[in-house]
Amino acid sequence: xxxxxxxxxxxxxxxxxxxxxxxxxxxxxxxxxxxxxxxxxxxxxxxxxxxxxxxxxxxxxxxxxxxxxxxxxxxxxxxxxxxxxxxxxxxxxxxxxxxxxxxxxxxxxxxxxxxxxxxxxxxxxxxxxxxxxxxxxxxxxxxxxxxxxxxxxxxxxxxxxxxxxxxxxxxxxxxxxxxxxxxxxxxxxxxxxxxxxxxxxxxxxxxxxxxxxxxxxxxxxxxxxxxxxxxxxxxxxxxxxxxxxxxxxxxxxxxxxxxxxxxxxxxxxxxxxxxxxxxxxxxxxxxxxxxxxxxxxxxxxxxxxxxxxxxxxxxxxxxxxxxxxxxxxxxxxxxxxxxxxxxxxxxxxxxxxxxxxxxxxxxxxxxxxxxxx
Length: 373
Ligand code: SF4
Ligand code: SF4
Ligand code: F3S
Hints:
Layout: H1 3-12, H2 18-31, H3 38-48, E1 54-59, H4 65-72, H5 78-85, E2 87-91, H6 99-112, E3 118-122, E4 125-126, E5 135-136, E6 139-140, H7 141-149, E7 154-158, H8 159-164, E8 177-178, E9 189-192, H9 199-212, H10 225-228, H11 239-243, H12 254-257, H13 276-279, H14 337-372
Parallel strand pairs: 1-2, 1-3, 3-7, 7-9
Antiparallel strand pairs: 4-8, 5-6
Helix pairs in contact: 1-3, 2-3, 2-14, 3-9
Bound molecules: iron/sulfur cluster (2 copies) and FE3-S4 cluster (F3S).
One iron/sulfur cluster is lined by residues 62-63, 65-66, 122-123, 159-161, 166-167, 195-196.
């Protein structure tokens, strides 16, 4: 990017340094499986966009956890990026106007941005008894969804409630909680499941749309492949223990304290697709994700697993044979663990190489800036 572009960038984004912004875009590129150099292209697309993409965010049967998770992302200046990257025209929790004014803002945005705005939905949609179990401003959530979706460019269903039905759809599903894609069938719907989902999977999807003018590649369940193409079990830090047959059998037992595999406590990592084990939560770099802190994955992001299969039920194993980099599960305990850890090291090295590439981009920017002083 030319320096003049960065002047435009600082006008475009409030309180975000050039260095932080490039670092942010480069990390997002790596997270989406794009070459690290694509960070510059993403930054350029955001800078040059004539208008920030308008977003209308609807909430139905939800707990606000998805929005909270987005707001808790602590990457430097992320809150600025959320507010500056998109034009958030309507959000029940974050909008400044309330009541009639908020509803007018939604109607005005639909009118002005016909066919161009992104519709984000969190929460499931109740259909029982004509949808009366979730009403906003005197209208049912299902009517508001249909009315808003009619004119949108695409829909992002954020969180397991909007993507699969989530908590409200657990047996006996008293309100007939229904996911968005089963109601709106004539618009592209991207599912970003998780309870809550990782905020970076949502932000990466929006950035991809801003940069390339299209949605990222999706799997057959409508999830971005960059985030949901691998089982949690494939990249789990406890995987060497699984392969060596070392399991915790009760919460707080010796094996649990030693960090052994949680499969026998009902971990659903072997049947859940998500990037929690590699991306983690909260930007702490301290292993902050369910399995990392000793709780089995309960399959929150997998339709039909989380909220439907009891926590204590053992997961179905789709990949009984471990990857080549791991020892066979039948190997004796204590043997081959070094090789297992080697497998993890390979994955870690790959991730490390990507982040080293990001750091080299940032270093280059710093040097360029120093050279200009
Ligand atoms: Fe809350 Fe989870 Fe539903 Fe998001 S997916 S609204 S965090 S219950
Ligand atoms: Fe990790 Fe769970 Fe797989 Fe064990 S079963 S390796 S804890 S994902
Ligand atoms: Fe959910 Fe399992 Fe990740 S419970 S947050 S998919 S580790």
